[in-house]
Specification:
Length: about 350
């Protein structure tokens, strides 16, 4: 891949450049010293991936990400020295369209290069996300074999999202009524080290309680659970959530497709599937599977998406019953749940 580096610190630029050069799989497209330069360079020479710092003079990484995704959209990975103490900026960058976050590698004469493996892993994952269809149907089918349905009759809203998702989720959760008559489960592509912080941040915006899903949790009406990064979140015939490493070939963990498809044949109540902003195709096939089983499905529209990838993939295969702007989705959920007259998943 052609990779661009955006960072105002020479030591960081050199560390990242060495990692890319040493991989023998990628090349440096260009280097920018601040966000404004990055926006300009990207307009004339769009790379496959931008490694974007958060804190820079002239224009920071959040604003640069926002402008690039508007003017010359491409994959962006936030690479910054400080992650744990700046969660608000991290989530703002993810909300603006960045795909993921990783710490800046450090060059040390005593220990060699620290953090290079993590950076290369992220680059490789994003490369597969850009170029592959997602989990194969055969692999996903292993998780959705026919089982007796769990005794669940409540309504469930299943939401999947990626790049731009945190901001979109915050708006939807903020708009839900406190007595929301359904359980909510969210699968958002986010690094495991930021999952807890994201859940905490969303809880501050949300009208209903939200936290990370733990092994064995049961979705509960009036509250939301969010997948923790690491393995795929699935719904079991027992009525409990669980994590699984299969399918191992899934481009992103957790996979929206895997979760959506795990609901079929197990959750016997009303299901509404929602696919929000994100790069790639994850979730499109799962949303189509839900629609084919009679569930109501919603995809976010192009105009309101930070990245119109996942919802577009859903629209292309006719997976969405409705394609709506972000500010209309809560009203659609409320309408469908009030009617509660749709066929059930089976």
């Amino acid at each position: 891949m052609r990779v661009a580096i955006v960072n105002d610190t020479m030591i960081a630029v050199e560390a990242i450049r060495r990692v890319i050069a040493g991989s023998q799989k990628h090349e440096v497209a260009w280097i920018a010293r601040n966000g404004a330069e990055a926006v300009e360079h990207c307009a004339s020479d769009r790379p496959d991936l931008i490694l974007m710092d958060l804190f820079m003079p002239v224009m920071n990484g959040v604003e640069a990400t926002r402008q690039i995704m508007t003017k010359s959209p491409c994959a962006i990975l936030i690479v910054t020295a400080s992650t744990s103490h700046h969660s608000a900026e991290v989530f703002s960058a993810l909300g603006a369209g960045a795909l993921d976050v990783v710490k800046t590698p450090i060059v040390s004469s005593a220990r060699g290069q620290d953090g290079s493996e993590a950076l290369l892993t992220k680059i490789s994952t994003i490369g597969r996300l850009i170029g592959v269809e997602g989990v194969t149907k055969t692999a996903a089918t292993r998780l959705t074999a026919s089982h007796p349905p769990a005794p669940v009759s409540a309504s469930l809203v299943a939401i999947g999202c990626s790049a731009g998702g945190p901001a979109a989720l915050a708006r939807i959760l903020h708009g839900l009524p406190k007595n929301f008559p359904a359980a909510v489960v969210v699968v958002q592509h986010v690094d495991e080290q930021f999952a807890e912080g994201l859940a905490t941040w969303l809880a501050e915006q949300s009208a209903i309680p939200i936290r990370l899903a733990r092994e064995g949790d049961h979705p509960t009406v009036g509250s939301a659970l969010m997948a923790a990064r690491g393995d795929h979140l699935i719904y079991q015939r027992s009525g409990a959530l669980a994590y699984t490493s299969e399918p191992v070939e899934a481009c992103y963990r957790p996979s929206v497709d895997v979760f959506f498809e795990s609901l079929i044949g197990k959750w016997t109540g009303q299901i509404i599937g929602v696919l929000l902003t994100g790069m790639g195709r994850d979730g499109a096939r799962g949303l189509k599977a839900l629609r084919d089983k009679g569930c109501h499905t919603i995809a976010q529209d192009k105009a309101s998406c930070a990245v119109y990838g996942m919802p577009k993939a859903a629209a292309d295969i006719n997976a969405a019953v409705e394609i709506l702007p972000l500010d209309k989705i809560v009203a659609a959920l409320t309408r469908e749940l009030a009617g509660n007259s749709l066929p059930r998943a089976h």
